[in-house]
């Protein structure tokens, strides 16, 4: 799994209505709109799962094991323990989405702060933060996530820690390079010359201008994070049964690969749909922001 | 040039040391006393102290690290708790499997990615480009462990063409051995092929718009020759991507090898996690991370040779 940072360049973008302009352009792109609809449907159906199904995601009936899709009462069939697949997929979205989105938000907060400080302060602070980042980059992201989660032992909190640690360094790099570029622009010099303090400059002049590349990058990281977090559950390092989660469901349904191949592959469709939508949306945002 | 190589080699030293420190601290990260797994629960305090001293666990952490490092440098990565065999021999058995699949997947990704990327870049905006680009972003976005399951469903369960798991038995023919590798290789090639397609596409579009192509056209050079120039310009990028991806593939093999029960380092890691075999986990992670560092180093050193314009400070 790759966490590669693209050459996102920061330009002085903050002007009245910049974001509403981006939003308008995004709405004109059919692919981006389709992705937003897919994501909205999946996220809303996970939130409102109890309203959409009457089954309990953890309770099944042994006599109803591995029914094919479109069986009476089970639109998408049942899993290896006779639980309704549709119910488990809806509820499973809760854990998969939380465990995919939360690490990115945490990395955005921690990595974004570190990167802004490194880029703005420069000097030794920059060297220390960036060299520490290099060390984590010496590991392929998935390997480091597996190493940390594997050593800490399985469990949700450990998986969350592992994913966040892995996602911080790329966030630091993108923020640092954007901040460094903006810092040397004329209006920052002007603000400094007119006596503005460091924090004021960051708040007023830097944050607004580095937001665009960071949002694009964070959106593509969501795609990576959703695949990695489901992957950790797939090898038993995240969610534990009977909690439904897409990656874990893919793993437990492997026993059904010969009897009900369609059901065995179903949870992956959702991981793929979410990951693809975030990636395409990131591409759409990039061109809406003219960053090509 | 020599100065650049020397500088890059020197830079790899602190990185390698830092990687070793992180791998060493994995044991510290693991909850519980590391001795509980090697000693019976009712061991007397005397035996516990003796064992602690024997493993060097009574010494301060920096001393423990140096002891561990000197062992590692002599090829001793400790003993697997589950199998009782040395970690280095376990890895030695497994690494060939991981390496062979990763190499084949990289070759496939290189060919497919270059071809798709060139087609897409040359026909920017056409239906051909749309198809190639859609394939590429699907390759980048697909959870590869799920792709593996889908391939097994199609090619093993439905069509019965290839075996679904394992690596076969020893002494089998080359054809049989390859038949076990086809699905894991296809699965692993998807992501790097997608990444190469995307970068080659962007690169070709950029090159075609550059002055040297216009100049070549103006001088009456025909399309095939221009194509050759573009490929020559695109190749270093593709090679750099594949070099880094090779490391990702070997390290990321844990998920794919779990799907196919492919007996490489990924399956080793998976077993280490299931049995909480920390020495095996630590050793395997260390070896895979060092391979990744080495591949990055090789790419950085080779790239200026392929593309003399890259003169890095």
Automatic annotation (TrEMBL), chain A:
For this protein, the record's PROSITE patterns field holds: ABC_TM1 (PS50928)
What InterPro entries does the record tag this protein with? BP-dependent_transpt_permease, MetI-like, MetI-like_sf, OppC_N
Give the GO cellular component terms, alphabetically: plasma membrane
Entry membrane topology: Multi-pass membrane protein
Give the matching Gene3D superfamilies: MetI-like
PANTHER family under this entry?
A: OLIGOPEPTIDE TRANSPORT SYSTEM PERMEASE PROTEIN APPC, PEPTIDE ABC TRANSPORTER PERMEASE PROTEIN
Tell me the Pfam families matching this sequence. BPD_transp_1, OppC_N
One biological process term from GO is: transmembrane transport
Span of domain ABC transmembrane type-1? 93-282
Coiled coil regions, renumbered to chain:
none
- Classify the main location: membrane
What name does the UniProt record give this protein?
Binding-protein dependent transport system inner membrane protein
Source organism of the structure? Celeribacter baekdonensis B30
From TrEMBL, chain B:
Q: Which residues form the ABC transmembrane type-1 domain?
A: 95-303
Single GO MF annotation: dipeptide transmembrane transporter activity
Return the GO cellular component terms, semicolon-separated: plasma membrane
Coarsely, its chief localization is membrane
Transmembrane domains' residue ranges: 9-30, 94-119, 131-157, 177-197, 238-260, 280-302
Quote the Pfam families the UniProt record gives.
BPD_transp_1, BPD_transp_1_N
Give the keywords, sorted.
Cell membrane, Membrane, Transmembrane, Transmembrane helix, Transport
Q: Where in the cell is it found?
A: Cell membrane
The protein's topology relative to the membrane is: Multi-pass membrane protein
Q: Which family does it belong to?
A: Belongs to the binding-protein-dependent transport system permease family.
Instruction: Please state what the protein is called.
Output: Dipeptide/oligopeptide/nickel ABC transporter permease
Q: Which organism is it from?
A: Celeribacter baekdonensis B30
